[in-house]
Amino acid sequence: MEKKVLTCIGCPMGCTLTVELEGNEVKSVEGNTCKRGDIYARKEVTNPTRIVTTTVRLKSGGVVSVKTKEDIPKEKIMDCVNEIKRLEVDTPVKIGQIILDNVAGTGVPVVATSFR
Questions:
Q1: Which of 14, 70, 79, 85 could form a disulfide with 104 if both were Cys (CB 3.0 to 4.6 A apart)?
Q2: SS3 label, residue 69
Q3: Which pLDDT belongs to residue 25?
């Protein structure tokens, strides 16, 4: 049986989690003080995902902060960042506006979050 030790990011407590795996099946999760820790650990060892935050250049100068609207597969992060890095958008941009419909083939949109 394989064991993995993780630090939970499900809440501010940052619990140390120990996950026991048999193949790709999670047998147990220990160390969590809330349900979110169990959910996080199971997902992290079987199908890790992340929300990506970065910036997009504005044609008028400056940048707009953006993020993926949902989490994307962890292995797609660099594809996502590289695709966003090539973008340059017109102003005005509104918070919540979709900047890119389907980033890196994930089906997830990238939305504006604030201006700098």
A1: 79
A2: coil
A3: 93
Find, among 86, 90, 94, 98, the residue nearest to 58 by Cα: 90
pLDDT band at 115 (very low <50, low <70, confident <90, very high): low
Q: What is the pTM of this model?
A: 0.81
Q: How sure is the predictor about 116, in pLDDT bands with cuts at 50, 70 and 90?
A: low
d(CA 47, CA 43): 5
Q: How many CB atoms lie within 10 A of CB 59?
A: 9
Cα–Cα distance for residue pair 58/4, rounded to 1 Å? 43
